[in-house]
Design brief:
Elements lengths: L1 H24 L8 E11 H7 L7 H9 L4 E5 L2 E5 L10 H4 L6 E11 L2 E11 L1
Parallel strand pairs: 3-5
Antiparallel strand pairs: 1-2, 1-4, 2-3, 4-5
């Protein structure tokens, strides 16, 4: 009976260690990421927030701002989603969003909300 109990205890300990090891190998934030599909507008954060400029007439300006390093973001349902990458070092989202500047898009990806900031790891993007 004792050997069965020891065997079960050892098996339980190995299971706990394996689960902890697997969790440690997960990417940071993966436990809070949720899969979404959004219809959103691609906005130029600087002009939208500072000057309230957006829309088709602002497209060329938004693309020039993106070239100058101003972040493009997604705006959907009153929320701003800032694109991020899972890579380290990370890559910006401007190259991915620039062709769609000031247009509506359909985006699938993982949203991570931390500290009041909505971020999105874009997996697929296409015109809406």
């Amino acid at each position: 009976m004792r050997s069965i109990a020891r065997t079960l205890a050892a098996a339980l300990a190995l299971t706990i260690v394996a689960a902890a090891s697997a969790r440690a190998q997960e990417r940071p934030g993966s436990e809070t990421a949720r899969q979404v599909t959004l219809t959103a507008d691609v906005i130029d954060l600087s002009c939208k927030m500072v000057h309230n400029l957006s829309g088709p007439d602002h497209r060329m300006c938004a693309q020039m701002c993106a070239d100058n390093g101003i972040p493009l973001a997604l705006f959907a349902d009153g929320q701003v989603y800032v694109p991020v990458s899972m890579g380290m070092p990370g890559t910006g989202g401007n190259e991915q969003l620039k062709p769609f500047a000031e247009q509506s898009v359909r985006v699938t990806g993982k949203v991570i909300d931390r500290g009041g900031i909505q971020t999105i790891v874009i997996e697929e993007i296409r015109g809406a």
